[in-house]
Amino acid sequence: MLKQANIEIIQLNLSGLFDQLKEETTWEQKEIRFMGKTYMQPRLTAWFGSSEYTYSGINHKAQEMTELLIRLKKIAEEKAGCQFNSVLLNYYRDGNDSVFWHSDDEKELGEDPIIASMSFGGTRKFKLKAKDKSDKRDILLTDGSLLIMGSGTQRNYLHSIPKSKTYTEPRINITFRKILS
Predict the structure, then answer these.
(1) Of residues 54, 128, 122, 41, the one with CA closest to residue 88
(2) Global pTM?
(3) Residues 96/177, Cβ–Cβ less than 8 Å
(4) What architecture (CATH level 2) is domain 7-177?
(5) Closest CA to 48 of 77, 78, 19, 28
(6) What angle is formed at CA 126 by the lines to CA 135 and CA 106, rounded to 5 degrees?
(7) How far apart are CA 91 and CA 96, in angstroms?
(8) Which residues contact 16 (CB under 8 A, 6 or more apart)?
(9) What is the mean pLDDT of residues 38-48?
C-alpha cells in the first residue's frame, strides 16, 4: 500500500509504437557524474518542449515535439487531468540500461509535480519506495502502459528502473511533465 503517493496504472491500446518512436527520435547519451566519477548515462535520452531542462547536472536542449508526441501528450493530459508542456524520452536498449533511484523534484517542476509515464516495447520493472522507508512496490510496465505519478509521489517517493537479466527487450519510456516558467 502506497500511503503518500497517488499512483494510477492504465493499459492503453497503443502498442506497436516502439519502432516509430525509435526511428523518429534523435537520441543522445550524455555523461553523468556519480559519486565523484564520470560515466556515460546508462540509457539514451531525448528532450522535447519549449525550453531546455537540466537534471543531475545534465543539460538537455529542447527539440520541437513531433506529431506523434503531441498526440500522445493529449492522451496523457486527458488521463492525468492536467496539462504538460514537455517530454523526456528514455531508450532502454536492453537489460543493462537503467536509471538509479531518484525523484522528479527539480524546482522547474514545482512543489508537487504530476508525471505521466508511457511505456513502449519490452516489459521492465519499475521500483518505487518511500523516502521514509515505510513502504515499497514493484510495478511491471508493459507495452502501451501509462503510469501516472500524481500528487505526493515525487515529494514522498523515489523510483528507479534497475538493470535486469529477466527483462531484456528494448523499451522506450516517455515522461510528460510541466515545466514552470
Answers:
(1) 54
(2) 0.91
(3) no
(4) Sandwich (2.60)
(5) 28
(6) 80
(7) 12
(8) 143
(9) 90
Distance CA 172, CA 43 (A): 10
Quick one: pLDDT at residue 5?
A: 66
Q: What count of residues does the chain have?
A: 181
Question: What confidence score (pLDDT) does residue 60 get?
Answer: 65
Give residue limits of the domains in the chain.
Answer: 7-177
CA 168 to chain centre: 18
Amino acid at 177: R
Question: Do 146 and 81 meet the contact criterion of CB atoms below 8 Å apart?
Answer: no
Task: Give the closest residue to 51 by CA, choosing from 42, 43, 60.
Answer: 60
Contact 147, 20 (CB under 8 A): no
Q: Are strands 58-60 and 37-40 parallel, antiparallel or unpaired?
A: unpaired
DSSP 95: T
> pLDDT for 96-149, tens place per residue?
999 999 999 888 889 999 999 999 999 999 999 999 999 999 999 999 999 999
Q: Which of 128, 150, 111 is nearest to 10 (CA)?
A: 150
* Cβ contacts of 54-58, under 8 Å, gap ≥ 24: 54/106, 55/104, 55/106, 56/32, 56/102, 57/32, 57/33, 58/30, 58/31, 58/32
